[in-house]
Specification:
The chain is an alpha/beta fold and 371 residues long. The chain has two domains: 2-46 and 292-362, no CATH class; 68-276, Rossmann fold. The protein contains ten helices and twelve strands. The protein has helices at residues 13-18, 33-43, 90-104, 117-133, 165-175, 205-209, 224-231, 278-318, 330-344, 353-356, and strands at residues 2-4, 7-9, 71-72, 74-75, 78-82, 84-87, 110-113, 150-153, 187-190, 214-217, 242-248, 274-275. Helix 2 (33-43) runs parallel beside helix 8 (278-318) and helix 3 crosses helix 4 (117-133).
Length: 371
Amino acid sequence: MSVLNNTYYVQSVPYLLSQYDCITGFSGSLGSNSERGFLAQQYKAWGFDTPSFLDTCIGADERHMYKTPPVLMDDPLYPGDPCVHVYDTENQQTDKIVEMCLRLHVKVPVLVIAKSPAEAIAIEAKVKAALEERRIGLYPYDSSSRNKYVQLFREYKDNSMTLDKDNWEKVVSRATSKGPEEDRFCITITDPFGGRGHDYDVHNNEVNNKGGLAVIMTFIPASKRVWIQCLGRTARQDNKGQYAVVLCANCSPVSSMKDDLVNYSLKGSNAKNLYEERLVEELLSVQDKEQELNLDSKIEDIDLGKHENRLYDLFYEKYPMEEGKWPSCKEHVELREKLRYKCDTETFTELSQVPRTLSPSMSLCVPPPQE
């Protein structure tokens, strides 16, 4: 429902998009099987994968070249074994993230992608406190909590719903740069907003030789599309990339398979809190099944919204505005009042209520929803 001043209208995005004969577009990811199936069902959409530029090239030795995907990092205690970190509490999880940030940013830029703005703020505070304790990155004669090596990247300005667009480019540029003393790189803390659509350029052979920009994921998203987008912040433009996964056992989806975690333990039961790389795919599979149920539950609402949108199109065809004036007639007033009531209480349970409960003169012959 859109409410703009005193103009009321039901807008269904699926209905709006269905008015086009064809829509084409490009995306860095198309999501999981359940999401692709949903798009095919609701929008008759279909897609195909296009190879990256390198995958279409042949090198000087006439062998095919391939883009290098980001690599899951190992733990210093078990070098050479890529692993997923899972901790019992959120405090333990955050402590591990802080330890990783401090260890990694002396070699490469670090990007932490948290599950929410609140978690990003909490992690930033702990990273700053750890650096301050070590007297790293402090501004002389500055009583604020700023640090030369840590920045928070978020969509909106502090305590507002105003987009912070003026700072986005600056933050992204600084994310891959060295600090003022040129002895370590920046640590950027963000949420899913900073994990999609932003180009963290690394033009530094030293960073590339040490594995590339390090992404630290603190959660497994509900959509595989989001996961692909987040990992796509590193290993960009033919550079190397690396990532770590640090999770909390009490958070979904890990909490749903606590009893099965032992089956994914690295080195058997000897490596505490460390699990094999295949755990990520299993967790993404769990999320995909949940996503499928979630999408299925929305189909009825979407169909109702599409049909209701058609009703309003027909209504304004029968009772158009006169010279841009609204409301132009008593039917407009009645519809406005009915929709105002609807906004404040509940949606119509029967779509036939839309024309019939307003006034007899407003009844419309509405075709049934198209299959």
